[in-house]
Amino acid sequence: MVNNDQRRRQLAREKFERQQQRRAERQRRNRRRTAVIGAALAVVVAGTASACATGLFESKNGEDGKVVDAAPGAPSKKADPCKAPAPGQPAKLSFDKEPPLTVDKSAKYAMKLRTTCGDIDLQLDAQKAPRTVNSFHFLAGKGYFDHTKCHRLTTQGIHVLQCGDPTAAGSGTPGYKLPDENLKDPKVAGGTYPAGTVAMANAGPGTGGSQFFLVYKDSPLPPNYTPFGTITGGQDVLEKIAGAGESSGQGDGAPNATVVIDKATVTK
């Protein structure tokens, strides 16, 4: 017999998975659309260079390619509890392939996220997720995460803050994909990612990139997302961010708090 609490957890897990699938499908549609538009423009530009020069084909789009408009009746945002970001813009770097594996699997690695809302400290598990930790060590060293916005907060059923996307639209990648690692870790094998877990976001098996999520409260999720670290400091920061809510009012949207990673470092 399934009790009410188990049913709620199951529904929350199924909702999160549906959202992930929809995001992945939107990304696939956007990529196909971009390819079609690119081909069409190649034809049009040949005969209408002057039109392009005057900006005829420019458009201003928001997340997932939607035109940015003020949504009527949108929920009002709570007060922003965080300070203004440090000067600078995301580097938006892209790399042709995954960096060579250079991390010491027997060593301990720490990642510090200096955010506009406070510092968040992470312990990374190079032994169980070496390629993921190696990638984060590489990307942080290149300044990839600096000045990037944490673009997604879930507050109902699933309780995570998602970061690591220079586009802040849910579609950013470092240019390469990472394999899944550590999915049989006993901590997540039971279908729950406990509070304090650091894990990779993805659009399906073997599609990890730079986006990751911080679990601030136990969250029912299948073991499909590489767990590669633990939050060791800054739980109060995450609770402050979560307390400000998210913009959609539906439990899954952009944080009302301006969560920007001013600087990310990984040290051995």
Automatic annotation (TrEMBL):
Keyword Cytoplasm applies = no
What SUPFAM superfamilies does the database record attribute to this sequence?
Answer: Cyclophilin-like (SSF50891)
Q: Which Gene3D superfamilies match?
A: Cyclophilin-like
The record lists the catalysed reaction(s) as:
[protein]-peptidylproline (omega=180) = [protein]-peptidylproline (omega=0)
UniProt-listed Enzyme Commission number(s): 5.2.1.8
The name of this protein is Peptidyl-prolyl cis-trans isomerase
Return one GO MF term.
peptidyl-prolyl cis-trans isomerase activity
Q: Which family does it belong to?
A: Belongs to the cyclophilin-type PPIase family.
**Purpose:** PPIases accelerate the folding of proteins. It catalyzes the cis-trans isomerization of proline imidic peptide bonds in oligopeptides.
Q: Which PROSITE patterns match?
A: CSA_PPIASE_2
Q: Which InterPro entries match?
A: Cyclophilin-like_dom_sf (IPR029000), Cyclophilin-type_PPIase_dom (IPR002130), Cyclophilin_A-like (IPR044666)
Biased composition (Basic and acidic residues) is annotated at 1-24
Q: Which residues form the PPIase cyclophilin-type domain?
A: 118-266
Which stretches does the entry tag as region Disordered?
1-31, 63-99
Asked if the record carries the keyword Isomerase, the reply is: yes
Transmembrane parts of this sequence: none
Q: Which domain of life is it from?
A: Bacteria
| Alphabetical UniProt keywords | Isomerase, Rotamase
